[in-house]
Write a structure and sequence with these properties.
The protein is of the alpha+beta class. It is built from three helices and five strands, in the order E-H-E-H-E-H-E-E.
Length: 134
Amino acid sequence: MIAKVITSSNTSNSASFGRMADYITDERQGGDKADWVDYSNFMTTDDHELAVIEARAIQDLNTRAKHKTMHFVISFPEGERPDKATIKDIESEAIKTLGFEDHQRISALHANTENVHLHVVVNMINPDNLNIFI
């Protein structure tokens, strides 16, 4: 298993959360890329557009932070396909280690390549205190 933070030169923060969320969920292309999608710490639990709007609204309330979105990928070796519960446990541990357990995030499993991988987009702005953590 390999975990990697994906960096971007894009600095339009609130828009980047939506673009990354659309990419990992394959929202604009019909969703064929994603086997499953989870929404964590949102008021809505399964509406993609509302989740993105909510995250952008939270990000817009913090005017100090420059980078408000984190995108990371957890990849599994070729041929390895853990069940959803195992993948969610791995994701939870990664999020906890990074200190983002109370933050909004969208996760999507991609199994359309030889290596199954989980994309996670995190709103780095805490929805309770509007501060960034990292």
